Amino acid sequence: xxxxxxxxxxxxxxxxxxxxxxxxxxxxxxxxxxxxxxxxxxxxxxxxxxxxxxxxxxxxxxxxxxxxxxxxxxxxxxxxxxxxxxxxxxxxxxxxxxxxxxxxxxxxxxxxxxxxxxxxxxxxxxxxxxxxxxxxxxxxxxxxxxxxxxxxxxxxxxxxxxxxxxxxxxxxxxxxxxxxxxxxxxxxxxxxxxxxxxxxxxxxxxxxxxxxxxxxxxxxxx
Length: 222
Ligand SMILES: [Fe+2]
Fold this sequence. Notes:
alpha/beta, 4-stranded mixed beta sheet, binds fe (ii) ion
């Protein structure tokens, strides 16, 4: 008896994300576009717009590389609210597990649920970070809604280290990825409700240097 089903291969299809309130839809969609995703459909609905994004224009007609974005369904919103009330989130009586979870996430953006996209140009990634830093600091709507973190490649490759030392965004970064040959950018936003507390979403953007067979996404190093 076969223990595995024969198959030709899989690709990553889609992820379904949610914003908290109907009015948040356009701003959440704007942020996804600023992060490089391509909006291919916007369906206005009374309970909040439904959006379909894809990772590149090549994916508009495909069934993979898709990010769906819609308003939090009411039962899920009630579940999150009940959970947060039970745990005393944001009160003086907050359950110690909540602060422990937050402390873990403050140390490592990718310690819990997150979603990563691979970027094929370091210059594009640097431009995205500069833009998001500007929006996080100065945009009237996005100010305070975005937190950005970065990991440099673990040092050891002279050419990569020199390139990152000359980078407008990575030069001052002191954190390192779980490996060499690539960099990571993390964008956390409360415009998307996910994670264990239903209060934010962590997006990751990675770049892998060409010609590095062992890199951050091929092997984890501790
Ligand atoms: Fe990750």
